[in-house]
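The pair is quoted verbatim below.
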Amino acid sequence: MTLVIHEDLLAAYRNSDHLLLRYFQAPLIVGLNVLTDMNDGIFYKAYSDVRYELQPRETVLEKIDHAKLWRETAMLFMFGVKRFAEAHKNSAGLSTYELIRLNLQGLMEEEEELRLAINVSDYIQEKTHLSRSRVMKILSDLREGNYIEINRGILMKVNKLPENY
């Protein structure tokens, strides 16, 4: 099945350990890959009133073909591959601080509407499974050093973060 997100925001989590894989901001189509079921082992969570629909993959591919939207579809796939490569690069063999640093930068790169709706500590924990105390300690230290600005748990600004902690 293909998930067509028309409005708002969904999060994708891995079933096995509930690791946050990424947020999907509308408009977006998820699940077009005919070579593998990318939705296998994943569950989605809505953070607001999401407007979406599920359609058979073949139906969506026929609509794309009929409307001659293959260029746009290829761009969508390239975006997905880029995000997947970034996620892998940003998680393998990194220190706790490096994971937090990369996720702070990643959260700042998200759409403003999404960033303003998500608690920064929750975002980092769900994406890394680091301990809450360690995440909070590093965020506190970064705030004290004026490297980041957080207001009521929302990441407002990231200044130049130090390379090392």
